[in-house]
Design goal:
The protein is α/β, with parallel strands linked by helices. The chain is built from 19 helices and 14 strands. The two termini are 36 Å apart. The structure holds pyridoxal-5'-phosphate.
Amino acid sequence: MKYYNLKDPQVTTGFREAVERGISPDMGLFMPERIPRLDDSFFRRLPLLTLPEIGMEVGSIYAGKDMPHDVMRQICEEAFNFPVVVRQVDERKQALELFHGPTAAFKDFGARFMAGCFRYFSSRDDKRRVVLVATSGDTGGAIASSFLGVEGVDVIILYPSGKVSSLQENQLTTLGQNITAIEVEGSFDDCQAMVKSALSGSVTRTRVKLTSANSINIARLIPQSFYYYYAIGRAGNGKVVSVPSGNFGNITAAAMARRSGLGIDRLVAATNINRVVPDYLETGFYAPAVSVATIANAMDVGNPGNFDRLRRVFDNDYGRITSSVSGYWFDDFRIREHIGREYRRAGYLLDPHGAVASLGLDAYLKHHPGSTGIFVATAHPAKFRDIVEPLIGQTVKIPDSLMTFLAGMKQSVMMKAGPQNLEEYLADRYQNG
Ligand SMILES: *Cc1c(COP(=O)(O)O)cnc(C)c1O
């Protein structure tokens, strides 16, 4: 399998290099050259396959010669060692719960798979890998927990001081070992600019391999398709699948699975008021915007990084996209109202992100009386207790995995915003080592 650079499609590379670079030096995203069609025997066996078995088969196609099958099997077994749950909510709706991993959000799937790939690649030479990640909250926690203790890899996480929740901050700052948290006196955008600049800079290139773990890395994208095979294998073909979308990686992975032959009837791109993609689907014009804060904050993205990839899955053909993908958006008022209503109506507790997906599915099903569907629940409601509890009038139990983060000791490096500060830090840390 070859990967091409979206900014320069003539240039192709293999799986390993695409993963290790994360993004090309000109900041172009890597995209698989083709989306392989899976054979009928795979789909016949699908209802009986476990998630790691699906990962082994599909992942091996995407990794090609860069990773032996038994390594892929081991990575998937270690990465996906927690349940994926398909839960019936009512006659027409099922929830695909992706929040039973260590950080209680779906980003665990991509982060843990990516960490497994790095563990393998770094065992094959003695160059040190440095994984940089800018986070507004959830991504950093998933990356930190996934890469903890991985030999030969340092993880450096930049987060905006005072702008993440205390639970999220604990997830970033209490692990220690090979995980360093940098607390930036600035915004998430500052953090992102610092990471981008370090990745394109040359200061540390020669000593260490620098890479990014943001959701643009294909090693995070590919495993996010595995659970769609699993869900359709269990729930049956012909379902509508509604995905709560921010950077549009998760729904791009679903679209890739569909293109490979998976029986998803239609995709719903559900967003909060950051509605550039639903607007695009309606009008054909893509107008990136400045992101607006909402209660579904992991989806507060004004210019989704994976949107180009989503378009590529449909060969950049607007007609093809709109015949496969519907878009809906919802404001905080509707999200709140829906969380309370679904709890009373169906006894199902949603977090704000899952609520957006559930609303999107409802909106589609309303006009398609014969259809049934699955919405993706991406975060555990306990992560958003402050929002959820008043809406349902009850307390929400925190899962044990999250409790462990509440106990640790915070350790972080304070840094002023500005690309040169990160460059200097990296030079100090790695130039002489
Ligand atoms: C990141 C995130 C999303 C958005 O996923 P994308 O792949 O960026 O579209 C949705 N819900 C939660 C809880 C998230 O953390």
